[in-house]
């Protein structure tokens, strides 16, 4: 095995040995970009960027999903150029079963001290990282000056920190929960109409019900990339039925139930639905 030749490599190997996936960060504290072969995810990459794992490229591609605990990869020739240019070590908190509450300023720190249980604390340039044991969904700007970095995210490694790491509290998990979307059903007994006054055909069994059934089937038959399939299906349903008022809570619940049967959490369903609404401007 090639021996480490730099401080970042040495730090990365130490973190990896403790089970925390690592990656080099370049100037600006950001990951290295994809190589030409992997540009625009042409290689297929990590499965929809949902989980870490190698593609065929031996380089440092795909941002947080490149993070690894494999020492052979960390000191490999393919990563050597990146380490020579690296300014610091990054890590994937969720991959190591951790959550980082990133507090950007004094006000955020004061808030955390009154609301969150004490845990391991690492000073940063402007604030502090509070590190908890346990993984969750990442989300930025959960409140002023506060980001959550865990799954599908990376954090900069600064130093070991002080204090005893404690279990991820519900108070932190609650910060990342988005309000479920509100879908207003059409008034009972009233056929919704288009802007031009034409009766909406979507409430007929031959159209709306078949569309919902096909969407359920698409989700149920997914064998991989379930997250992406759920999102694309929600997007397709909303693009067809989202502007007429014909979708009811019953229809939405059918889609959410199909997604959860494939392992999606209620939160993931809500996020996918909200993202689809935003994409379509609904």
Strand order of the largest sheet: 5-6-4-8-7
Q: What is the H/E order?
A: HEEHHEEHEEEEEHHHHH
Main sheet properties? 5 strands, antiparallel
Radius of gyration over all CA atoms, rounded: 23 Å
- Mean of residue pLDDT values: 81
Poorly predicted tracts of residues? 47-52, 180-198
Percentage of residues in DSSP E strands: 5-15%
Q: What is the helix content?
A: 25-40%
* Net shape: globular
How many strands in all?
9
**H/I helix tally:** 9
Structure classification: alpha+beta
Alpha-carbon distance between the two ends:
54 Å
Structure description:
It is a single chain. This protein is α+β, with helices and mostly antiparallel strands and 282 residues long. The chain has helices at 7-17, 71-74, 77-85, 106-115, 170-175, 205-220, 226-241, 249-261, 266-280; strands at 22-26, 30-31, 88-91, 98-103, 120-123, 128-133, 139-143, 146-149, 155-156. The strands form two sheets. Strands 5-6-4-8-7 form a five-stranded antiparallel β-sheet. A hairpin with a 2-residue loop joins strand 7 and strand 8 (146-149). Helix 6 packs antiparallel against helix 7 (226-241) and helix 6 packs parallel to helix 8 (249-261). The longest helix has 16 residues, at 205-220. The chain starts with 6 loop residues before the first helix and ends with a helix. Mean pLDDT is 81; it is low at 47-52 and 180-198.
